[in-house]
């Protein structure tokens, strides 16, 4: 399964992402893992081909996310194929278990998946010594 990562520099640029895994990273370490599988990453409610969707981080979070990005945090969003979105819970849980974060330290059972990281791979994945899921990247 391939995760195609992209680093986003602004809240506005990330708003329309949907069916994705995301990572807020600070000092090269995972700070918070999340998913926007049935929502957009940001903004208000709007139409989507699958029906109306809300923003995971509605516009009230804009100042907070922008402030973090301007003061050293990084935002990575991992796109999945439309078929792979059905595995998003297991993907998120596996990433949390493999790359523990400051804000999501509880782990839950998951189906192990071979993940291939491509694109703007987060620093915390690149520097990890874990062979569990980093099978390759471009």
Number of domains: 1
Oligomer class: single chain
Shape: globular
Biggest β-sheet description:
6 strands, mixed
What integer value in Å does the Rg equal?
14 Å
Task: Give a summary of the structure in a few sentences.
The chain has 138 residues and is an alpha/beta fold. The protein contains 4 helices and 6 strands.
List its salient traits:
31% strand; 4 helices; alpha/beta; 6-stranded mixed beta sheet; 138 residues; 20% helix
Topology:
Layout: E1 2-8, H1 11-14, E2 18-26, E3 29-42, E4 55-57, H2 62-70, E5 74-79, H3 88-98, E6 116-119, H4 123-126
Provide structural commentary:
The structure is a single chain. The chain has 138 residues and is an alpha/beta fold. The chain has one domain. The protein is 20% helix and 31% strand. It has 4 helices and 6 strands, in the order E-H-E-E-E-H-E-H-E-H. The chain has helices at 11-14, 62-70, 88-98, 123-126; strands at 2-8, 18-26, 29-42, 55-57, 74-79, 116-119. A 6-stranded mixed beta sheet has the order 4-3-2-5-1-6, sandwiched between helices. A hairpin with a 2-residue loop joins strand 2 and strand 3 (29-42). The longest helix has 11 residues, at 88-98. The protein is globular and about 35 Å long. The two termini are 14 Å apart.
């Amino acid at each position: 399964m391939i995760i195609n990562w992209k680093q986003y520099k602004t809240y506005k640029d990330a708003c329309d992402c949907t069916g994705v895994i995301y990572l807020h990273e600070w000092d090269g370490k995972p700070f918070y893992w999340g998913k926007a599988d049935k929502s957009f990453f940001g903004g208000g409610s709007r139409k989507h081909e699958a029906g109306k969707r809300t923003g995971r981080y509605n516009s009230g979070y804009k100042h907070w996310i922008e402030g973090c990005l301007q003061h050293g945090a990084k935002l990575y969003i991992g796109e999945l194929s439309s078929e792979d979105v059905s595995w998003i819970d297991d993907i998120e849980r596996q990433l949390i278990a493999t790359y523990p974060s400051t804000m999501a330290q509880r782990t839950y059972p998951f189906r192990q998946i071979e993940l291939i990281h491509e694109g703007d791979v987060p620093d915390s994945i690149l520097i990890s010594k874990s062979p569990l899921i980093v099978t390759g990247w471009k």
